Amino acid sequence: MVTANLVEEVAVNLLRLAVIELPRDVKEALRKAYNEEESEAGKTQLEAILKNVELAEKTRKPICQDTGTIIFYIKAGAETEGLDKIPQALRNATVRATREVPLRPNAVDPFLQKNSGDNTGRFIPYINWEITSGDTLEITALPKGGGSENVSAVGMLVPGHGVKGLKKFVIDAVMRAGAKPCPPNIIGVGVGGGADIAIKLAKQALLRPLDQPNPNEDIARLEKELYEAANMTGIGPMGLGGKCTVLGVNIEYAHRHPASYPAAVAFQCWAARRATARIHADGRVEYLTHTFGGK
Amino acid sequence: MAVYKLRTPISEEEIRKLRVNDVLYISGTIVTARDQAHRRALELHKQGKPLPINLEGLAVFHCGPLMGKEGEKWVIVSAGPTTSTRMEVFEDEFIEKFKVRVIIGKGGMGTRTTEAMKKYGAVYGAFTGGAGVIAAQAVKNIKGVEWFDLGMPEALWILEVEEFGPLTVAIDSHGNNLFEEVKKRVELNKQNIYQTLGLQL
Ligand code: SF4
C-alpha cells in the first residue's frame, strides 16, 4: 500500500539524490561538452564542473550550495489510495531533507522578507498533479536553482511570425541570459495554451532526459536547430567564452488561441537537479533516474 | 594563459602580473560578502569605525554558503559563488577603501569595478558557478563569522583556504574585462545566427 510514511521516505530520498547526484543523461552531456569545448577558459570551467560532480557524489554533499525551490511533479494513478495525504507527506519530507541532507533554506515570504528556515511556506513545496490510470504513484523532485530561474522568459509573440518568431524569442532569451544562469544550461521551451500554460510547459520540458528528443520529428528537428544555434553564440561555459552554452533544448507545446502565440523559455542549471521514483501499489519502490541502494 | 598560485595578503605588484584568461589559485584568507555585508562595511567606514577584519590584500568571495553544525563547530557544506552584478554598486568603493586584491564571484562585473581594479590594483576571479563542493573542499578552517544577524548567506564568513580555485581571471588590473569581450562577440555573432535560423522577420 502507498502510505504517507512511504511517500515521505521516498521524497526525502529523492531530494537527497537530486541535490547530490546528477541524472545519467546530464552527466553524459557534460562530459561530451568537455570533450568538444575549444576555449581554454571554457574547458577550465567544464573541468571544474566535472570534478565537482564527482566530489559531490563521493562526499555525499549537495553539488551546488543553492539547493533551490522545492518543486514536485506527481503522476498519481487514479486508483491509488490516500492521495489526500500526499501534500502533507511531501511537506514533512521537505522539512526533513532540509535538516538531514542539508538543504539551504530558500523559502522567503515575499512581503515580510522572512525566511521560513525549512524550505516550506505558502504553496511551497509546490506540487504539480497529473492523474493517470492505474494504481502507481510517480514522484519527481525538482529542486530549482534561483540563478537560472531569474532569466526565465515569457512572451506573447505575433501569431503571423509563426515558428520564426519562436526561434528568435528562444535564441534572444539565451543571448540575454548570458553568463547569469551558470551556462551550459538545459533550455525548456513551452509554446501555446496561454501565458501560464506556456511557462508550465517550459518548466515541464526540463524533466525530459537529454537523450530523448521530442517524439514529433519536426519538433525534434527544431530542438536540434535551436541547440546548435545557441552553441553558436560564443557565450560558453560560465559566460567566459566558448562553444558549450547549452546542453540541450526540449520543447513542449499546447494548441494556441488563433489570436495569440504564447511562448516561454525556462533555464535549468548544468546542476540539473531532478530525481524520479515510482511507488507501486504493493509498496515496491523503483528509482528511475538514479541508482539507489544498489538498484 | 598562465597559472598563478598566490597567498594572502597579496601585494599590488603581484596582482598586476595577472592578465585575463590566466588561472589563479588562492591560499590564505578569503572572506564571504554579499550585498548587505558590502553595504554595512561601507557604512562603518563612513562613520570611521573599523571592520571586524582587516581586508587589505585579501580576497572577497561573493557567496552565500550552505553551512552545517557539527556540535558547536561550524562546518562548510557547499559554497559556490553567487551572481556578482548585485555588488556592482558597492565594489569600486569597496576596493578603494579596503584594498582587497581579489574579488571572487560568478557572472562578471561592470565598468565601475573594472575601472577601480585598474586604478587600485585588483582582479576579478570567476569561480565556476554551482561548483559548491570543490569550493568547500578548499576551505581548511572556518576562522570566524561576523555579522551573523544578517543571516547565514549574508554573514561575513572568514575562511582559511588552500589552493582555492580554479579562478579564471576575468577582469585584470589593466582594464581588460573578459565578460565584456564575450558579450561583444555574442553581439557580432547575432546576425549570423539569425541567418542560420532563417530569420528575416
Ligand atoms: S544558477 Fe544553478 S548552478 Fe548556478 S549557482 Fe544558481 S543554482 Fe547553482
Main traits of this protein?
heterodimer, A: about 300 residues, alpha+beta, Dihydrodipicolinate Reductase, domain 2, 2 domains, five-stranded mixed β-sheet, four-stranded mixed β-sheet, about 35% helix, globular, B: about 200 residues, alpha/beta, fumarase, five-stranded mixed barrel, 6 helices, binds iron/sulfur cluster
Taking Cα atoms only, what radius of gyration of chain B do you get, to the nearest Å? 18 Å
Number of helices of chain A: 8
Unreliably modeled segments of chain B = none
Structural class of chain A: alpha+beta
Ligand inventory reads: iron/sulfur cluster
Give the overall shape of chain A.
globular
Strand order of the largest sheet of chain B: 2-3-6-7-9
> What is the fold named in CATH at topology level of chain B?
fumarase
Which architecture of chain B would the CATH scheme give at its second level? Alpha-Beta Barrel
Quick synopsis:
The complex is a heterodimer of chains A (295) and B (201). Chain A contains eight helices and nine strands.
Outline the structure in words.
The complex is a heterodimer of chains A (295) and B (201). Chain A has 295 residues and is of the alpha+beta class. Chain A folds into 2 domains: 4-21 and 63-145 and 273-287, 2-Layer Sandwich (Dihydrodipicolinate Reductase, domain 2); 147-268, no CATH class. Chain A has 8 helices and 9 strands. Chain A has helices at residues 4-20, 24-36, 40-59, 86-100, 146-149, 162-177, 195-205, 217-230, and strands spanning 69-77, 126-132, 137-144, 153-157, 185-191, 246-253, 261-268, 275-279, 285-287. The model of chain A has no long low-confidence stretch (mean pLDDT 96). With 201 residues, chain B is of the alpha/beta class. Chain B has one domain (3-197): Fe-S hydro-lyase, tartrate dehydratase beta-type, catalytic domain (fumarase). Chain B is 32% helix and 31% strand. Chain B has 6 helices and 9 strands. Chain B has helices at 12-16, 35-46, 88-98, 111-120, 132-138, 178-196; strands at residues 3-7, 23-32, 59-61, 66-70, 73-78, 102-105, 123-127, 139-146, 156-171. In chain B, the strands form 2 sheets. Chain B has a 5-stranded mixed β-barrel. In chain B, strand 4 and strand 5 form a beta hairpin. Chain B starts with a strand and ends in a 5-residue tail after the last helix. The chains are: A alpha+beta (295), B alpha/beta (201). Chains A and B meet through helix 3, helix 6 and helix 8 of A and helix 5, strand 9 and helix 6 of B. The complex binds iron/sulfur cluster. Iron/sulfur cluster (SF4) sits between chains A (64, 66, 145-148, 181-182, 269, 271) and B (80, 129-130).
